[in-house]
Amino acid sequence: MMDRSQASKKSRGRILVVDDDPLLREFLVHFLQEAGFEVRPAPDGLTALSFFSTEHFDLIFTDYRMPGMTGLEVATAVRKTNPIIPIIFVTGEVAVPEPKALVQAGISRMLPKPFTLDDVRSCLDLTRAFIPHRRVA
Q1: pLDDT grade, residue 61 (50/70/90)?
Q2: Radius of gyration over every alpha carbon of the chain, rounded to an integer in angstroms
Q3: According to the model, what pLDDT value does residue 70 have?
Q4: What is the structure's pLDDT at 11?
Q5: Is pTM beyond 0.90 here?
Q6: Which residue in 31, 16, 37, 18 sits closest to 85, CA to CA?
Q7: What does the pLDDT look like over 80-109, one tens digit per residue?
Q8: If you write DSSP's letter for every residue of the chain in order, what string do you get?
Q9: How far is CA 54 from CA 49, 70, 117, in A?
Q10: Are 8 and 32 in contact (CB under 8 A)?
Q11: Mean pLDDT, residues 24-28
């Protein structure tokens, strides 16, 4: 078993997972870690933005409806400082924001609930376009 420092050297990238549903959040965290990513879970938008302001991420998964701040508001705030990071908008809502609002917030892709592991894997392809610009230690 690798220790944390070895794992971080072999990481495929860092992902921020924002969801107020602890079961779904932990499911995504576990799956993404097994896929070789370092993952930082956040239970709400304010916590996510706090992490985002002090840490580097290569991809963000954010739920739409959360207490205090929606995923759309999270994406809009992220875009003010990082216009290129891929943001995956996860939602189980029947009524989602208009496509124009999603584009304005900088949403890269929408992932409707329920989703499959293959759906999540396809979102990971977005990191390939973003990560090559990073320096690997």
Answers
A1: very high
A2: 14
A3: 94
A4: 80
A5: no
A6: 16
A7: 999 999 999 998 876 777 888 888 888 989
A8: ---HHHHHHT-S-EEEEE-S-HHHHHHHHHHHHHTT-EEEEESSHHHHHHHHHHS--SEEEEESS-SSS-HHHHHHHHHTT-SSS-EEEEE--SSPPPHHHHHHHT--EEEESS--HHHHHHHHHHHHHHGGGSPP-
A9: 9, 21, 29
A10: no
A11: 96
The residue length of the chain stands at 137
Six token digits for residue 75: 């994406």
Q: Please report where in the chains the tokens 């029947």 appear, as a residue.
A: 94
Kindly state the average pLDDT of the residues 120-127. 85
Check if the beta carbon of residue 10 is closer than 8 Å to that of residue 37.
no
| DSSP bridge partners of 39 | 15
Question: In angstroms, rounded to a whole number, what is the distance separating the alpha carbons of residues 82 and 50?
Answer: 14
- Do 38 and 8 touch, CB atoms closer than 8 A? yes
Cα–Cα dist 16/59, whole Å = 6
